[in-house]
Amino acid sequence: MNPAKRIVINTVAQYSRSIINIILSLYSTRLILAALGVSDFGIYSIIGGVVAMLGFITNALVVTTQRYVSFHYGQEDMDAVRKVFSNSLLIHAVFAIILSLILFLLKDVVIYHWIKIPLDRIAAAENVYLFTIAILAITILIAPYKAVFIARENIVYISIVEVLDGFLKLFLAVYITYSTFDKLVLYAAMMVFIQLCNLLAFSLYAIKKFGECSLGGRRKDISSSCILNLLGFAGWTTYGAGVVVFRNQGIAIILNNFFGTVINAAYGIAFQVQGAMAFVSTSVLNAMNPQIMKAEGAGDRDGMLKLAMQESKYSSALMIIIAIPAIWEIHSILSFWLKEVPPGAEMFCTFILLSFIADQLTYGLNTANQASGKVRKYSLLMYTPKLAILPLALFVLFMWHEAVYVMCVYLIIELIVSVSRLFYMRRTMGLNVSEFVTSAICPLLPLCLVLFVVGYLCVKFVEFPHRFIFTLVVSVLLGAIVFWHFTMSNGERLFAKEFFVKKH
Q1: Sequence ranges of the domains in the chain
Q2: CA 1/CA 241 separation, integer angstroms
Q3: For residue 487, how many other CB atoms are within 10 A of its CB?
C-alpha cells in the first residue's frame, strides 16, 4: 500500500477508535462508580494509580522497540528486526518480573502505611493490589508485540482490539452491577482477565503473521550489545517521560502546599480534559511515526524531515480545531460534565490546552530525533528545562500568591522548548528552520484566527442551553473548510482528492 494512503487509513482508524473508546469509557466509569460506591471506587483508583504512575516507563519501552524495528524495516533487514524483537521481549519479561517482585515486597507498606483504607476493606484492598501488579506485568509483556504492530503500520488491528477492550470493560461494568460477589475484588480480577485477552490478541496474531515474532530461534538472537543499545535508548526516553511526570506532580504538590486540596482537584481536571483531547494528536503520531522511522532507516534524511514537518502540522491543526472552541466554552463544558466545578478548573484547563498546542507545533521533530537514535543529548536539552517550572512556581507564588502566574510560566517554558527544537534539529540534523516555519507553522495561522473569531462570536451573541455543542460543531465544520483551503498544500489536497475518489 502507498505510504501516504496507509497514513490516512491509520489516522482514521485511530481517530475512530479513540472516539468510540472515550464514549465507552465515560459510560463505563459512570456504571462502575455506581456499582462500587465512592469508597471502593476510591480504593481502586488509589491502588490502580500504581499502573498509571509507571505507565510512562511502559510507553518508553514501546517507543524503543518501535524505533529500532521500524528503522530496520526501512533498511529491509529482517534478521535485524527479528533480533531486536527477541531482545526486546527478553527485556520486557525481565522488567515485568523485577517490577512485580518489588511491588509485591512493598505491599504491606503501601496498604498499611502509604494510603488510608477502612479496616473492613483491608483484605479486599490487598487482593486488588495483587491483581493490579498482574495487570501491570501483562501490560509490559504486551508492549513489544504492540510495538511491532505500530512499526508494521497495522494500526487497524490495534484499533479493533482496543475497541473490543472498551466493550469488554463496558460489559464488566454492567456485570458487576448485578453481581453478588465482592464487587471491588471481582472488578479487579476481571480487569486482569481483560488484559490477558489483550495479550493473547496481540501475541498470537503476531506470532502467526509476523516472522520476526515467531517462537523459533529466540536463544541465538539474544545479544548483549543489542540489549545495551535498547536499554540506552529506553533509558533516555524514560528520562524524558519521567521529567514530564515529575514536573506535573511537582506542581501539584507545590499548589497543594499553598492552596490546599481543592486546587489539586481543579489541576487534575485540567489534565483529564487534556488527555481526552490528546487522542487527536495521538492518532496522527501513531499513523506517521513508523514512516518517519523507516525513512531514516532507508537513509532518506530529507524525506524523514519532511514527514516530521507534516506530522507537526497535522497533529497541531487537528488539536487546534478542537481545543480553541473548547477553551471558549470551557465553563459550559465543565458545568455540563461535572456536578460541581472546582474553583480554578477553567483557568487550569485553558493554560494546559494552550501549552499542549505549543508543544505540538514542533513535536514531529521529537519523532525525527528518535528516528536518528541520538536521544541522550536531546533528552537532556529538551526535557530538563521543563523542570525549571518548579523553582519558578515557588518564586511566583511567594511573590504574588496567584496560581495563574504559575500557569503563565508553564506556558512560556513549553513555548521556549518547542522553539528550541527547531534550532537543535537544525544543528544536529540539518533542518531548514525557515522551511519548517513556512510549511508547518504559518499554514496554521488562518485556522487559529478563524476559530478564535468564531468562538468569540458564539459566546458573545448566541445564548441557549448547551450552547457549547453548537460552538464545537460550527467550529469543527468551519475549521475543516479552512484546513482544506489554507492549511493543506496543493499537493496534499490533490492526494486527498485522488484517495477519496479511488475509495468511492
Answers
A1: 9-222, 240-504
A2: 33
A3: 25
d(CA 186, CA 177): 11
Q: What CA–CA distance (Å, rounded) separates 504 from 501?
A: 5
Q: Are 136 and 155 in contact (CB under 8 A)?
A: no
Q: Of 172, 191, 179, nearest to 31 (Cα)? A: 172
State the residue for C-alpha cell 529491509.
76
If one counts every other C-beta atom within 10 angstroms of the C-beta of residue 111, the result is 17
Residue 193 vs residues 33, 160, 165, 168, 218: alpha-carbon distances, Å: 20, 18, 11, 10, 27
DSSP 8-state symbol, 106: T
Question: C-alpha cell of 153?
Answer: 503500520
One-letter identity of residue 134:
A
User: Which residue, among 99, 177, 187, 80, has the nearest Cα to 143 in the 3D structure?
Assistant: 99
Contact 391, 334 (CB under 8 A): no
Neighbours of 379 (CB within 10 A): 21
Distance CA 233, CA 61 (A): 9
Q: Of 354, 344, 386, which Cα lies nearest the Cα of 251?
A: 386
Assign residue 401 a region: left if phi > 0, alpha if psi is -120 to 50, beta otherwise? left
Cα separation, 148 vs 145, whole angstroms? 5
Per-residue DSSP letter, 440: I
Whose cell is 521556549? That residue is 416
Nearest to 270 by CA among 321, 344, 361: 344
The three cell numbers locating residue 484: 482544506
C-beta of residue 370 within 8 angstroms of C-beta of residue 293? yes
- Per-residue model confidence as pLDDT tens for the chain (504 residues): 556 667 667 777 777 777 787 778 767 777 777 787 767 776 776 676 666 666 667 777 778 888 888 888 788 788 888 888 888 888 889 988 988 898 888 888 877 776 667 778 888 888 888 888 898 889 889 988 888 888 887 888 888 998 899 899 888 888 888 887 888 888 889 989 999 999 999 999 988 888 888 766 566 778 888 888 888 888 888 888 888 888 887 888 888 888 876 777 788 778 878 877 777 677 677 778 888 888 888 888 998 999 999 989 988 998 899 899 999 999 998 888 776 778 888 999 999 999 999 999 999 999 899 888 888 899 999 999 999 999 999 999 999 889 999 999 999 999 999 999 999 999 999 999 999 999 999 999 999 999 999 999 999 998 888 899 999 999 999 999 999 989 988 887 887 776 555 554
Q: How far apart are CA 109 and CA 456, in angstroms?
A: 52
CA gap 154, 161 in Å, rounded: 12
Which residue, 162, 164, 86, 99, is CA-closest to 134? 99
d(CA 51, CA 39): 19
Q: Residue 291 corresponds to which cell in the numbers above?
A: 514512516
First to last CA, the chain: 17
